[in-house]
Amino acid sequence: MKRVVVLMAGVESYEVKLNYYAMAVAILTDCSIETAFEKLQSDHPDMVRPQISEEDYQDISRFKESGLYWTEIASFYNIPWYNLYKRVRDRKGKVG
User: Fold this and answer.
1) What percent of the chain has pLDDT over 90?
2) 8 Å CB contact between 77 and 50
């Protein structure tokens, strides 16, 4: 039995288009792909901040203990170093 696969040229699903748009936003605004998706789906895209998970905070602590500078760590998360420093400092104040 022969199978015939028909590709519909020019027809892409909403999810595929969203992926392309998110990739373009990430490249043009120098943000992570997760932040780009949030910006695309937000009513106020300029106010979207990159999210840092609990695991990310643990990684940041390890990076700092290993001797990396804030600028180097911030480049991993595509945010300014002072914003990262301030968020970690504020988090430590709430936890500790």
Assistant:
1) 23
2) yes
Residue 52's contacts (CB-CB under 8 Å, 6 or more residues apart) are 60, 77, 84, 87
Instruction: Supply the pTM of this predicted model.
Output: 0.54
| Encoded amino acid at 19, one letter | N
In whole angstroms, give the CA distance from residue 75 to residue 9.
39
CA separation for the pair 47, 59 (Å, rounded): 25
The answer to whether 50 and 32 are in contact (CB under 8 A) is yes
pLDDT in tens, 2-19: 555 444 555 567 788 888
Question: Which 8-state DSSP code applies to residue 51?
Answer: P
- Which single residue is written with the structure tokens 């039995």? 1
